[in-house]
Amino acid sequence: MLAAATAPAQAPTAQRRRAIGEVLLAVENISLRFGGVRALSGVSFDIRKGEIRAIIGPNGAGKSSMLNVINGFYHPQEGRIVWKGEARPRMRPHEAAKGGIARTFQNIALFKGMSTLDNIMTGRILKMRASFLEQAFWIGRGRSEELRERAFVERIIDFLEIQHIRHTPVGKLPYGLQKRVEFARALAMEPELLLLDEPMAGMNLEEKEDMCRFILDVNEEFGTTVALIEHDMSVVMDISDRVVVLDYGRLLADGTPDQVRNDPAVIEAYLGVAHG
Amino acid sequence: MIYRETGQFRTSYAEDQAIFRLRQDRAGIAVILAVAWIGIPLLADDYLLRAILVPFLILAVAAIGLNLLLGYCGQISLGTGAFMAIGAYAAYNLALRLPGLPLLLDFFLAGLVAAGIGVLFGLPSVRIKGLYLAVATLAAQFFADWAFLRVGWFTNYTPSGSVTAPPLDIFGWLIDTPLEKYWLCLAFACLTAILAKNLVRSRIGRSWMAIRDMDIAAEIIGIRPTTAKLSAFAVSSFVAGGAGVLWAFVHLGSWEPLAFSIDMSFRLLFMVIIGGMGSILGSFLGAAFITVLPIFLNQAPAMVGIQLSTAMVSHLEFMIFGALIVLFLIWEPHGLARLWQIGKEKMRLWPFPY
Questions:
Q1: Are A29 and A79 in contact (CB under 8 A)?
Q2: Which letter does DSSP use for residue B167 in this model?
Q3: Cβ separation B221–A123 shorter than 8 A
Q4: Which residues in chain B touch residue A187, judged by CB atoms under 8 angstroms apart?
Q5: Which residues of A touch B201 (CB under 8 A)?
Q6: What would the pLDDT profile of B194-223 be if each residue is shown by its tens digit?
Q7: Is the domain of A203 the same as that of A85?
Q8: Is B278–A137 a contact, with Cβ atoms under 8 angstroms apart?
């Protein structure tokens, strides 16, 4: 399935929109406080199956906090999260991972001492079942799973065009490639919902275009739902189906890129300079 | 030039995942194993086997145990000596109280006891890390020192506090000569090295390294930090406990609690740091550095014909050894294993400039 990496990058938007299904995740009236600081107040929006959902807003608007809430790092004081139609109990990040939520971080969170290959292989940990003894003696599933998952990971490596750095320790890689390896690790989890926290921050134009292509491909080929935070407006407007705008922890606007672009509140609070 | 991968193509993932990927590596390890199993027994005298090689091999096993915890999972422990002691006394008591228990099963059960206690003292790692964890594991050391010195039951109420291991009888094969002891330790060292290597290249090893490198990211890909840390403590303590049994039963024969004092924990910590954290090979190199070098320094003056008083030699030994550790940590903080890595890189091209 990953072999279709050569498919046209930019399929017509209309075609993709037809693949968008029911609500995958809904955040309802989420409020999050740290002591006296209100990071989020009463934010509600939903993410539908198969769509690319952008979350934008000025610095400190609560975007990363929102991802951390979805991810299980933070537990909101109010509101609830509905995952696939059921209210989700308070959970830890590894439980969210088991449920099918993967993510990347704004500041790269790779395992610096391990090679690219091993980093991506860690994304397959939840798919592996070998017992302790099978692993210690490299027999049965201990061996066969390593080969099976390696083959899977190699397809991701091909897909993201990082074959040449397979055995390089990630600490030695340039920034753009590290971002790509982190993306690969998240993909290796075969998530239903992929959270990307500024996947294009600090990249040059070419790297950004590559990253956009990968995100669109993942979305189209595997139907992976993507929620991304991004500051580059042209990227957001180009690739996302719907956009959420946060400002000071409150929901400012929610709609298609065109609706958001023309929303007076958004223009005033955020895009004002660019469109003024 | 002699150490190149040129022309050696790996055409399957199984080949690419082999421990020794290069023909040169495979040849090298074959030579080392041949020397260790056949060459040394033919050439070495009893003193070399008894006083140098047996302790080296046992400490290498213990260093692998600590390396799994510290080098791979990033959880610092100052209690390795304690886990060795727990293994040794557990084996002693099991053999004493369950006569007829096969020796290898006794060793295994002792390892399990050490693993259980290791998990118990590893519990603080769920909440604390780094230096704070080091202090918490230090508690294990003091607790073991106290328990084996003060609780008479563990030492079968011997008045001197010193206990003696039963004869080493493995399925009717009585191990009593230095050579047999050497072979036994070598077998355990090889087995430990291979199992440890398999673990660190499997899922469990990757989950340890993920916790070591970035615990937050490890959690978002579905690793339970508690499970990963405690499993590292369990495996590490199991290996250390096994090494403790060997140290007590095979090397010492009869021993006191002092044999597993904090001094032992520190020596093992140095072995792992000097040998190379996160490297199985490094555990062997570190153990060799710490056990063999002092003996060499002690005998070097006599070898080159310099006559010095015994006191002078032993003072010099400490000074040079200490200086070497400091200098070494400055030159190559990543340990002997990294030095070997760099050497291999150089050998790819040598003698050509590029």
A1: yes
A2: P
A3: yes
A4: none
A5: 146
A6: 999 999 999 999 999 999 999 999 999 999
A7: yes
A8: no
Residue A176 and residue A125 in one domain: yes
% of chain A with per-residue pLDDT over 90: 71
Q: Report pLDDT digits (tens) over B32-51.
A: 999 999 999 999 888 889 88
Task: Write the residue in A103, A128, A146 that is nearest to B220 by C-beta.
Answer: A103
Q: For residue B19, what is the nearest residue in chain A, using CA coordinates?
A: A138
Among A190, A210, A234, give the residue marking a domain's end: A190
Is residue B345 within 8 A of residue B283, CB to CB? The reply is no
Here the tokens at position B41 are 């027994």
Q: Which residues of B touch A189 (CB under 8 A)?
A: 221-222
Taking an 8 Å cut-off on Cβ atoms, the answer to whether A110 and B214 are in contact is yes
- Whether B43 is in a domain gets the answer yes
Q: What is the DSSP letter of B165?
A: P
In a domain, B336, yes or no: no
Cβ–Cβ below 8 Å for A145 and B203: yes
Is A172 inside any structural domain?
Answer: yes
Q: Which pLDDT does position A271 carry in this prediction?
A: 56
A222 and chain B: CB distance < 8 Å anywhere?
no
Residue in chain A lying closest to B222 (CA): A94
Helix B336-349 × helix B280-303 angle, to 10°? 90
Measured at the CA of B346, the angle between CA B343 and CA B348, to 5 degrees, comes to 115
Domain that holds residue A167: 110-190
Asked whether residue A268 falls in the same domain as residue A175, the answer is no
Distance to chain B for A145, nearest Cα, Å = 9
Q: Are residues A185 and A206 in the same domain?
A: no
How many folded domains does chain A comprise? 2
Residue A195: is its pLDDT beyond 80?
yes
Is residue B351 one of the residues assigned to a domain?
A: no
Burial B242-251 (b: 16+ CB within 10 A, else e): bbbbbbbbbb
Q: Which residues of B touch A140 (CB under 8 A)?
A: none
How far from chain centre, in Å, is Cα B44? 23
The complex's ipTM works out to 0.88
B213 to A105: CB separation less than 8 angstroms, yes or no: no
pLDDT of residue A121: 96
What's A251's domain CATH number? 3.40.50.300
Point out the least confidently predicted range of A13-22, B95-104, B179-188: A13-22
Instruction: Count the domains in chain B.
Output: 1
The answer to whether A197 touches A105, Cβ cutoff 8 Å, is: yes
| Other residues' Cβ atoms within 10 Å of the Cβ of residue A44 | 13
**Do both A246 and A175 map to the same domain?**
no
Question: B229 or B11: whose pLDDT is higher?
Answer: B229
Domain that holds residue B131: 21-261
What pLDDT sits at residue B8?
A: 82
Q: Is residue A141 in some structural domain?
A: yes
CB contact (8 A) between residue A118 and residue B209: yes
Question: Which pLDDT score, from 0 to 100, does residue A275 have?
Answer: 45
* Confidence class for position A2, pLDDT limits 50, 70, 90: very low
- Once rounded to an integer, what is the mean pLDDT over residues A256-272? 82
Q: A136, B199: Cβ pair inside 8 Å?
A: yes
Q: Which of A173, A190, A207 delimits the end of a domain?
A: A190
Q: Alpha-carbon distance B151 to B158, whole Å?
A: 11
A220 and A268 co-located in one domain = yes
